[in-house]
Amino acid sequence: MIIVLKPGCKPKQVEQIVKQIEALGLKTHISVGTERTVIGAIGDDRGKTELQNLSALPCVEKMVPILQPFKLASREFRKDYSVVKVGKASFGGKSFGVIAGPCSVENERQIIKTAEGIKLSGAKMLRGGAYKPRTSPYSFQGMEHEGLKLLARAREETGLPFVTEVINAESAAEAADYADMLQIGARNVQNFALLKLVGKLGIPVLLKRGMSTTIQEFLMSAEYILSEGCKDLILCERGIRTFETSTRNTLDISAVPVIKELSHLPIIVDPSHATGVRQYVAPMGYAALAAGADGVIVEVHNEPEKAMCDGPQSLNLKEFDAFMKKLGELAKFDKRKL
After folding, report:
1. 32 pLDDT exceeds 90?
2. Which residues contact 129 (CB under 8 A, 6 or more apart)?
């Protein structure tokens, strides 16, 4: 249920309503808009009758049931689109955020050179894997804690905030001490214990869609994170598994406008994991902008031919610079800025 308060409602009145809602065993989530404050009452139907009685309070304008199963992620809960800021990177509104960097952190020179290069081209945020969930147990699994320290060093050198993937409770707790944003990868999109954990950590979260996850399932996973108090959550479309073998996955670009219709959360696109082929990354990045996405996350490596993972889908610094120049020109047509 959404409780919409009248303009000018005082903080003490809001506090009293929150206490009454929570006394019914429901969770409350407050959204402060430019004109009105909205309180989301989330839980089962046991206190529904008592909850509806709150409509008699003088500062309550109306009460509206949330029809979608994903309550906090829905446009019913929040009409205005959310904007998430991480350092100088902004996702949503008129901003088109660009995150770039290697699949995994391999050594100090690699991550520093890549970070310097992407910053020079206009990226506002660095990505890099310290913990790598790999299909094969024999593949490179990441530098773990040492990788986090190198990412922090790259941030110190360039000023770029960074996002890194976490794969379990231990890595989440460790990464939270270093990272500016935590990423939940496609394989963990329905690891509900991990979703609940990162929702409590108090830092921004990037949630990737699973390769076989429906849009509703994706938004329900987002709901797990939001329900634990997370205020800054970004969704990421990274391709789904289909019968097609020409690309690594099939980029579901239609998911962008669908999610924009259903949710207030920013959504970005990962053309690198979606295609798995370097020459397809830039065209799909432009398509993401045209579809209304709030940004892209692109794999970039200073020497892709030497990359320990995902070299074939990684742009080199020269290719990334060309991509950013064209992306900037296309953004002007939609009055967006990188």
Report:
1. no
2. 102, 103, 104, 105, 142, 147, 164, 165, 309
